[in-house]
Structure formats: structure tokens, C-alpha cells
């Protein structure tokens, strides 16, 4: 019996087989257990020799089972360690890492600067009704601004006789949507894509604007000037002066175009120095008709709005001469300007 089991245990190749053998030999109905039960029927003399012999056998088989089980476990662990082993010194396969597009980077930068001044971010749809894009902003149907903006019109389905939807030509419709949704007071910026049918070195049919809107009981052009100078100084990391020139937008009164101070040094544009001026945005005090369209009482509330080209201020900061390059997805270009690894 001893030889039989020791042989079987030695041959066992996995832990399940060991368990089988344990049951076969030492289980309730195991071969050795049954023999132990026979002891009761034996004479005292027989028992005196058979008893200790059987106990010794039982212990020996038990130890052999445990030893083998441990050995099998160790072997399994070794095998796993071997198969899961990694050589951390091997060279890795190079995987080029992407980065945020420069426009996204600049948008984040702009958003962070205005956030420090208490402006929240608002968004609106890029496919816009002509009411939000024009009428609510005091640009009626016959107004020349509609033609000036080179609007892309969307085709309505046959039988739908509403005025055609448009690709928003500016971020100003978000002023209306935000005021409608939340009312005054309000302090927001609205970054996003806008569309105009135009294409040359400084114009692409899709470009990016950021709108600013601050509505409260007592907001003035002076607040606007302070906010913009704070913004440009933070963005260009220089002390940037602004110049306001009287202008006209249907949705602001008075209106101003804003220039930032700059100069050219060795063919490089330097913002915040010299006596040159560069136009960067349109702005003004929100027209009472615009507040009315957005269900805000113009006798109680007033405020300023501005809209500036994100791509344009990105070009200025990074010295990029051609706007179109932003949208060419040319990796060499992105790398050249340090926008990609
Ligand atoms: N919406 C104007 C444009 O796109 C910019 C602007 C915004 C002007 C807000 C005044 C106030 O040109």
C-alpha cells in the first residue's frame, strides 16, 4: 500500500490529482481509513503491532501528499514567473505623442485669464437660426450687415418655409441664448467656431472667436477698457495699452474697435511696445434692443460686449503669418511652432 501511494504521489502532475489521491487513501472511505476501521475487530496483540504500523503509514502518506502539493505549487509559480517576466531594459517602440491644437491651447489660455476676472464659459450651437444670429442682435432682414458677413445659409427641407438656418457668423448669438437662459446679472465669455465665406491669408471660412459679455446694474466702457487691458497684458505677458476707436455695430451703442499697442522689431511683431496699433476686436455697450430681445429690462441693466478672433491673437502671440496654416494639419508646421512633439 505504501509503495503504491508513494508511487502515485510521485507521478501526480497537478494539485487536483493530489486531492484525488488524498481522498482515495485517507478520505472517509479511503483505503487506509478502511484498514484503520478493521483494527477494532482485531485481537489486542494483533492491534498492538498493526495499530502503530497503520498510523505510521497514514502519517507518511499525508506528509508525502503535502510535500508534493507544495512542490507542485512552487513549480506553478515558477512557470508563471518565467512566462510573465518582463525585460524593462528593452528599448520601447516609439509612439509619437499628440498635443492640443494651438487654437485649443490658446482658447484654454484665454478662458483661464477671463476666469480669473469672474467670467464663466458659455456655449451655443454652430448651426443657428437667423433670429439668434441677426434679428435678436438688432440686425433686421434688410440690414447690410447680413450681406457683409458673407453668411453661409443652410437649406431647409422641402415644404419647410421657415427662414433658412445659418452657420453662425459670430459668437454674439450666444449673448442672447445665455441671457434668455439665465438673465442678468451675467459675466461670460463664449469661445467657439464661426463661419464666413471668405478665404485669403488672414481669412478662412471657419475661424474662432471669443465673445465677452458683462451685464450688471452699473457697468461702463471704463470697465470694458480695464478688463481688456488686463486680458491683453496677461495674455501677451507685457504691459499692453489699448486704443478705442469709434465704430458701429448694430448690437452695441456706443461701439468701438479696439487696437493694441505694438511695434515691429527685426521683422518680429512685439505687442506692448512702441507706437504702432493693431486692430484686434469689436466691442461696445450692449444695445437696449438686444437686451429687450433677450428679455432683460434695459432700464435696469446695462453692460458691455466684445468679440475677438482667437486665431488672430494666436497668430500675433506666436508670430504666425498665415491663418490658413492652423487648419492644414501639417505636422511639420505644428512642430516648427513648438505645438507638437
Ligand atoms: N460680433 C462682432 C463681429 O463678429 C464683434 C462684436 C461682438 C462687436 C460684440 C461688438 C460686440 O465682428
TrEMBL record:
Domain of life of the native organism: Bacteria
Residue positions annotated to bind Mg(2+) are 253
Which cofactors are required for activity?
A: Mg(2+)
Q: What is its main location?
A: cytoplasm
Q: Which reactions appear under catalytic activity for this entry?
A: tRNA(Phe) + L-phenylalanine + ATP = L-phenylalanyl-tRNA(Phe) + AMP + diphosphate + H(+)
Q: Which UniProt keywords apply?
A: Aminoacyl-tRNA synthetase, ATP-binding, Cytoplasm, Ligase, Magnesium, Metal-binding, Nucleotide-binding, Protein biosynthesis
One GO biological-process annotation of the entry reads:
phenylalanyl-tRNA aminoacylation
InterPro entries tied to this protein: aa-tRNA-synth_II, aa-tRNA-synth_II/BPL/LPL, Phe-tRNA-synth_IIc_asu, Phe-tRNA_ligase_II_N, Phe_tRNA_ligase_alpha1_bac, Phenylalanyl-tRNA_Synthase, tRNA-bd_arm
CDD domains reported in the protein's UniProt record:
PheRS_alpha_core (cd00496)
GO cellular component terms?
A: cytoplasm
Query: Is Protein biosynthesis among the key words of this record?
Result: yes
Read off the SUPFAM superfamilies from this record.
Class II aaRS and biotin synthetases (SSF55681), tRNA-binding arm (SSF46589)
Annotated PROSITE patterns: AA_TRNA_LIGASE_II
Compartments, as annotated in UniProt: Cytoplasm
Output the Gene Ontology terms for molecular function: ATP binding; magnesium ion binding; phenylalanine-tRNA ligase activity; tRNA binding
Domain Aminoacyl-transfer RNA synthetases class-II family profile positions: 104-341
What is its quaternary makeup? Tetramer of two alpha and two beta subunits.
Give the family per the record.
Belongs to the class-II aminoacyl-tRNA synthetase family. Phe-tRNA synthetase alpha subunit type 1 subfamily.
Query: What's the protein name?
Result: Phenylalanine--tRNA ligase alpha subunit
What species is given as this protein's source? Loktanella atrilutea
